[in-house]
Structures are given as C-alpha cells and as structure tokens.
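Troubleshooting log. The previous structure file for this entry was overwritten by mistake, so regenerating from the original sequence record. Sequence copied from the archived sheet and checked twice against the printout by T.R.
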Amino acid sequence: MTESSTPAAGLGAQSAALLAESTQEGTPGGREPRSYMPALGIVNFGVWIALLTPVMVSMAFKLQRITETQEEATAALGLVLGVGALFALVANPLVGRLSDRTTSRFGRRRPWILGGVIVGFLSLTLVGVASSVWLVLIGWCFAQASLNAVLAAANATLPDQVAPARRGKVSGVVGITTPLAILAGSFLINYIGDDVTRFVAPALVALLFGIVFVVVLKDRVLTEKPATRFTLGQFFGSFVFNPVKHPDFGWTWLTKFLVMFGYAGIATFLPFYLGERFGLDEQETIGIILLANLASTAMMAISSPIGGILSDRFGKRRPFVTAAGLIMVIGLLLLAFAPTVPLVVLAQGIIGLGAGAFLSVDLALATQVLPNPADTAKDLGVLNIANALPQSIAPAMAPGIIALGATTALGGYTTWYLFGALVSLAGAVLVYRIKGVK
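Regenerated output below.
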C-alpha cells in the first residue's frame, strides 16, 4: 500500500469507494460472513486437488501406459499439459468477465462455480477412462477450462466480500490450499492403483466442495443488466490490459508469471526426473513425491499464514514477494544438483517455504492494483493467466531444454531446474517495479 491507512492503493477515490462498498455489502462492520473464509478455502482446495494431482503425478504415469516409449510419453505430457493450460488461460479471464455481468437470481458467481465443478468432474472421468493420447487431451482441455472457470468466479468473491485490510489473511488461507491439495493428491495416488480412480477421486472432491461453497456463499445479485452489450471486442478485451496506462498491474502480472513458472511449471517433470536420475520405479517414485510434497506442505503451512498476517500488519507486500522468490531460487538450485533422494525432498521443502510466502501475499497485492473495480473478476482473471500460462509454456519448452542439457556436462534435468531458478530470480527482483504498493 502507498500508505498503511489507504485501502485499495492505486485506485482513484471514486474507485476505492466503490470497492469499499462492494466489500461491505451484507457484512456488518465491514467484515465478511463468518463462513466465507473457510468456504473459499475448501473450494480452492477442491479445484486444486483436481487440477494439480494430474499435473504433479498421475498424468505422467497415465501417458506412460498408453504410449510405447519414454520419449513419446515426454512429448505427450508436454502436448497435453501445454494445450490444456491454454484452455485455462482463456477460461479464467473470460468467465471472470462474464460473471461480473451475470444477472441470474442465483447470483453473479454461483452459476459459474456450480456448472464448472460438474463439467470438471465429467471431463476428468473421461481422462481416466481414455485409451489414447487424443482422448486424454480432449478431456484435460475441458477439465482445465471448467475448473479454471470455478477459480475465476470463486476468487472474484474476495473483493466482493472482504475489506482490503483483511485480504492478506484471507489470501493466506487461499494460498495454503495449493500445497495441501498437492499433498492430498499425492496421498490419494499412493493408495490408488488404477488410472480411472486416480482421476475420478480428485474430481469428486472438487465437485462436492464446489457445491458446499455455492450453498454457503452469500452471493451478490446484479439486479440491472449492464448498460453495454458483451461484444467481440470485450471478449478479446478479457485477455488484455494496457500496461502503459496501468504499469503496476503489468508488473504484478509479470512478477506472478515468473515466480509461478519456477513453482508450477518446473515441477511437472519431477516423476520423469526421479526415474531417470535415481532409477526409481513407479511406486517408488510416487512414494518419494509424497515425501517431497509432505516437506513442501509443512514449510508452506509455516510460511503462508505468517506471510499473510505480517504483510497486513506492516502494510507491505513487495518485500515478502522478493524474499519468497529468493527462497524458491535456493530450493531450485539444490534440486538441480541434488546427488541423493533425501536432498530432493529437502529441496522441495525449501521451494515450499518460498512458495507459501508468495501465495499468501500475491492475491492481496493483486487486489490493490486492479485497474477498474467494475471489472474485478475480469482483471483477476487476466492476472490468473500468469498462473495458467507457465503451465502451458513450461511443458512446451521442457523437452527442448532437457534434450539440449543432455548434451552438456550438466545433464538435461539439471539444466531444466537451473532455468527455473533464473526465471524465479527475475520475478523476485522485478516486484520492486510496482510503485503503488509498498
């Protein structure tokens, strides 16, 4: 924040007033409903367990079983995750904008959340039963689109429901759901042997928790239709913003993209890395991933709430983002050169420590640089492109970088993780280009 007493820094006085009004409607004393924060946490947990369990573990083994060689499996993983993430990239800001304009008596956000978890469940079931790479690709694209629609609509309720001074705390709760979902997904996969259940079980969690959020949410109803029609120009405008007019928003987007590339994009190939470097079979690999995710989650459980609370208390966001990025760099460097499996687990713990601090503050920072309070969900959706895009670009880049690294003394996966460390370092430094937030 520019001043600790100034909510919604970077917004004009009228915009700040509109945002303050939206956060206090139906919330006596300016506080969100008591059930809101845990409900937002569980819907995020449900969506992330459905999306990240395949990304981190089960998709790699699924594709290994329906392809003939390791090279084919690696290429298929890059194709499926890369194209699927593009669907997430489109769905997130588009549904965010549409939910801003939704006039249903059911509310602005709830129709998208309920529809998204239902389609997501059906899509992941298709992935589970698929016997070809193309069917997996189709199912995964629908899953990414529908479940990211849920994220766009659900997280857009944060500025609807929560006063600016409390967003760091709520953002911290949202942030911790990501590692918890990864850990829970690893536990599921460790005890589930067949591909169908490996995809259906996380999807069922997302469906049930999405329904809980829909029931609990005191959603705002838009009583009047928007004055302007939703045009093709607005459709394409759902994915863009003017970084010259809104530089803080632009730098926030870039920082988020770079840090998330190091966190989410790099981790996708961990199952193949463990198998190649240490000669582990599938079940051994799943066990190590479980331990690594346990270490990561434990560290995130420490850093995520502390980061959110301290950033609220000191009225600062940037130092926490920078520290988080630097800690992640240390973890990625250790992962790149780890000579033993225990050091891989330690590296994942260090990465988790940094990621927890980042995720706890990131959403709170983002809500303070939004260009237009009338387009809250759309703008948050544009920022969420920075979450989805690394998951598209990284799998597409990985086979080439790994192959290039394999021709050097470093080796393919060492080169890949070093590249991730450099990208995260850039994100940690560039956050100080944001001027409207301390």
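The radius of gyration is 21 Å. Archived copy saved in two places this time.
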